[in-house]
Amino acid sequence: MCLVYISEVSFRLFFERPKSGELAVLVHIKFSQQSEPEDLREFEELALAAGADPLTLVTGQRDKPDPKLFAGSGKVEELGQLVRDNNVELVIFNHSLSPSQERNLEKVLECRVLDRTGLILDIFAQRARTHEGKLQVELAQLQHMSTRLVRGWTHLERQKGGIGLRGPGETQLETDRRLLRVRIKAISSRLDKVRRTREHGRRARTRNSVPTVSLVGYTNAGKSTLFNAVTEAGVYVKDQLFATLDPTMRRVELDDIGACVLADTVGFISHLPHKLVEAFRATLEEAASADLLLHVVDCADPERDRNIDEVNKVLAEIGAEEQPRLMVYNKIDLHEYSIPRIDRDDQGRPVAVWLSAATGEGVALLPQALTELLAQDLVDDTLVLTADEAALRARFYQQHAVVSEQFLDNGGSEVHLRIPKPDLLRILSHSNYQWSQLRWLGGNANQSAGSD
Questions:
Q1: Start and end of every Hflx-type G domain (predicted)?
Q2: What's the rounded Cα separation, in Å, for the pair 74 and 55?
Q3: Is the pTM of this model over 0.85?
Q4: Is 360 annotated as a binding residue?
Q5: What pLDDT, in 10s, does the model give residues 33-78?
Q6: Annotated binding residue at 185?
Q7: Which end of the chain is more exposed for a tag (fewer CB within 10 A), N or C?
C-alpha cells in the first residue's frame, strides 16, 4: 500500500499544474546547421496558451547542442541569474531536451525546466474535453514522462548503500515504471477500440456513398471558425494556438451531392511531437481516409508558406499526402490584396478558395467548389423508362434524383436524373439492373458504361 501511495504522489508531481500563471523565462538557441530561422513569435504564443507568464526571451547561438546542458555554460549561468533575481518558477526551451539534459538543467537552475514537447503536451492536457481526447493526451504524456521519472526521485540519490538503505530509489522507480507500462497498455487498448469504431463509421459512410471532407491546417488558421460558418455547429473558437483539440463531425447538404460529412480536426504545428501524432492517430485517420481535404491557410500570416510545408509534413507522416485537397485561404479581411474568389487549374477544376470565415466574405464559394470537386462522377442525363420499370422509377424518386419527368404516350416516361454515379450503381444493383440495359437520351450511356 505504501508503494502505491508514493507512486500516486509521483504521478501528481508530473501531471498537476498550478491554476495561476507561472513566471517563466523562454529560451531559444540557434544552431549553425539550421537552414531556416524559427518563428519565435509562435514560441511565445505557445507559452501564453499554456498559461505561463513570460518574463523574457533569452536567445543564443551555438554550433551544436551541449550534451550535458544543451546550452553553453555561460548561457546557463545567465539563465540562473535571471531565475534567482526574479524568482522565476519555470524555464521553457524551444527545443526537445533529452531526459538527462532536462535533469541537469533543473539541478543548476533550481527550478522546473520544460522543453517544447512538454509544453505542447501541457496545452493539449488543458484543452482536451472529450473522453477520447483525454485518453489520447494522457497516452502521449505517459510516453513522454516515462523517460523522465527519475527526476521525481532525486531525493533518494544519497541512499547508495549501508544496512537498511540499499535500493529504495531503484525499487520505487521500477514500481512507477511498471505502473506506467500497465496504464499505457490499457489506454492503447481503449484507443484501439476507438479506432475500430471510427473505421466502422467510415465503412458505413462508404456503403451509403456519403463523402467525407476533413479540415486540416496549421493551428490558429481559422478551421473551427470556418467549420461553424459552414455547419452552424457552434464549436469552441478562440484566437489562440490549439483552441480546438477534440474532433467534431457534422452533416452538410450540398447541391447535386446530397449529404456530406465535414470533420474539424486538431491543428498542426512545426516540430509537432511524434508522440502526439502517434497518440492522435485514431483521430488523424479521419483525414487520411477523407474523400477530400480542405487545407485551411491563414493567408495574412507572414509565415504562410512555412506553415503549409509543416502541414504537408504531418500529412505525409499519417499517409494522407496523396489525398485530393482544396486549398482554402482564410482571413482575407486581414490581407490587403485578397478578394473572395475561386482559383482554377487548366481544366477548370477548383484548386483554391479565398474567403474570410470571420466576416463571411466568400464563404458561399466553398460549397460551390466542394460540389464541383465531389460531383465529378455525377450523372446528369435523361433516362427513358418503360411502364414496366415503375419500381426503378420509384427508387429514383426516393433518392431525390429526379429533376423533371415527361410522360410518353406508350405509358413510359423520360426522367431527367442528377445523381452521383455510385448511388446510381447501388440502385441498379438492388433492382437487378445492368448499366447496359439503360436507355439514355444524352451521352452518359456510352461514357459511363465504358468506366463501369
A1: 211-378
A2: 20
A3: no
A4: no
A5: 765 666 688 888 888 888 888 889 998 888 888 899 998 889 999 9
A6: no
A7: N
